[in-house]
Amino acid sequence: xxxxxxxxxxxxxxxRRLVEAGRQxxxxxxxxxxxxxxxxxxxxxxxxxxxxxxLTGCDAVIPRIGASVTFYGxxxxxxxxxxxxxxxxxxxxxxxxxxxxxxxxxxxRKGIGLPVTGFAHSPDDIQDLIKMVGGAPxxxxxxxxxxxxxxxxTETAKAAESVVEAxxxxxxxxxxxxxxxxxxxxxxxCFVIGDRVVAxxxxxxxxxxxxxxxxxxxxxxxxxITPEERSTAVRAAKVMGLNVCxxxxxxxxxxxxxxxxxxxxxxxxxxxxxxxxxAGMVYEFIEKNARPHRTRTKGKG
Length: 301
Ligand code: ADP
Description:
- With 301 residues, the protein is α+β, with helices and mostly antiparallel strands.
- Helix content is 32%, strand content 27%.
- It has nine helices and 16 strands.
- It has helices at residues 13-24, 70-82, 91-98, 100-109, 126-132, 157-169, 227-240, 268-274, 278-289, and strands at residues 2-6, 28-32, 37-40, 47-50, 53-54, 60-63, 86-87, 117-118, 138-142, 151-154, 174-178, 186-193, 196-204, 219-222, 244-252, 255-262.
- The two termini are 27 Å apart.
- Adenosine-5'-diphosphate binds next to strand 9, strand 11, strand 15 and strand 16.
């Protein structure tokens, strides 16, 4: 098959691995810089132009769209969908997953376990908001944050109030969340492909830190997850409409709770921790499922 990888940087580990694994399986792989795609919006024969040429003949695309280019990246992917190219993850699902509030609302609606979470717009409501989610200690998160940046643990209600006030003063969108202290600074990244968790790793925050992100110095190791965790991750992926994603789960006293569903999960940490050929499994899924015009939402927003 001819498969495009939408990625801004061909040197990134995940992109390199996807190129390598795709070629190994006999596919023709092209890395396409998302931001260099341009297009005209027409109802007949929509096309994508790239570096002076029209991109043709792609059977499937693998979107690796970074958080900072979600808006444009989703538009490019929609155009591919309108052309009938099979997307590994659909644009609608990616856009959904990038909005933390929307994601949590969708997951809650389907009864997926979540940390108690609140959000408000007006500083006048802070005290009641904090009470509503059960009081301190609390985790406060910037909605636009990634890789653990903008995630703050506040030990007391007073501290929580001040941090919420400060963020609101900066016009930042935030959410306020129950702190799952029993997770002990660890979370579980479940790598989902289709209706299976193909790999799981435990990420442990470094000493004195509660955020387990590898970018924040966390360490990864393979873990055996419970059937409940497995089904929670698979259901969360399904609710979001993502074929391939990373579902981050915390072990709480009230069972597994989902923190986040990541539509462009990195391969490096999980392949290193588990020794599995995840990139190969991604192609296995594409080979089984890619058909022209198979997009459920046909490029809708
Ligand atoms: P980001 O999307 O920036 O990675 P997350 O919401 O995933 O932000 O939070 C980063 C890390 O902080 C998580 O991996 C987890 O280890 C920790 N964390 C986040 N929320 C909570 C919570 N409610 N309780 C306990 N730990 C949390």
